[in-house]
Amino acid sequence: xxxxxxPGATVWGANAVNGVINIITKSAQDTQGTLITxxxxxxxxxxxxxxxxxxVGDDLYVRLWGKYxxxxxxxxxxGHGHDDWRQGRVGFRxxxxxxxxxxxxxxxxxxxxxxxxxxxxNQAIATPPFVQTVVSDGxxxxxxxxxxxxxxxxxxxxxxxxxYYDRLQRMDAISDVSLDIFDIDIQNQFKVGDDxxxxxxxxxxxxxxxxxxxxxxxxxxxxxxxxxxxxxAFIQDEVKxxxxxxxxxxxxxxxxxxxxxxxxxxxxxxxxxxxxxxxWGAISRAVRTSVTxxxxxxxx
Length: 300
Hints:
Layout: E1 2-5, H1 9-12, E2 19-22, E3 33-39, E4 44-57, E5 60-71, E6 75-76, E7 79-80, E8 85-96, E9 103-124, E10 131-154, E11 157-171, E12 176-192, E13 196-212, E14 225-242, E15 245-256, E16 260-274, E17 277-284
Antiparallel strand pairs: 1-2, 3-4, 4-5, 5-8, 6-7, 8-9, 9-10, 10-11, 11-12, 12-13, 13-14, 14-15, 15-16, 16-17
């Protein structure tokens, strides 16, 4: 788990305002064999998962996994809370480095499906008493897939290309939401002399979502269907001033359907007297976009 403190919008883009948490998962080569865990209790009635890693061919490793969780409903002063939920997930990851050469390929994805209960008070209706409490049995499902190609030119130069597609759908008593996200990203790293490390990249992301509600008195959406696009490019130079002092300068330039053109520059000075300590200061501009008001929140 990599924690980047402070604004990181120059490389990571919009909404990287106070910091970035980057979770790097293990290669399929590092998770060979079989792992099975199971547990349960009064609230978490079932917590099970399995993982199996295998070498399929020369330099090709695959990991298959699945998880299932069943969470019991809580108790309220008037009885059962009707907030139980259950979800199952299955997924895979494949890593291939042909001939231990300069190219490596990664493909991963997952499918999930679940059910969740909810008690929704004060929902408007057209007849007296004009409000009611709705006991909802919601459904949610989705899938995503990611592919990445990395090419090492030499010890100081590399190219990385990545695409991502995500599909999400949620249905309950007051809303029906679907979301599609497509993302493609290209980055290049290289050195100029001994003191300059350049990183630059370009990217494109497309959001498409749709909102609707089975109860017209409970939910009103002005723009039920939206298409949002984001295009961006960035460049950053890390200058090594001394063995323990570095200066980082760069900016991201982007355009999106909602707020138009944005720029996000950053200048940072980092002093690392040893391996366990660092002191830094930065002047940065980071942008928050209203895209996050849409249900596109995903971790990873």
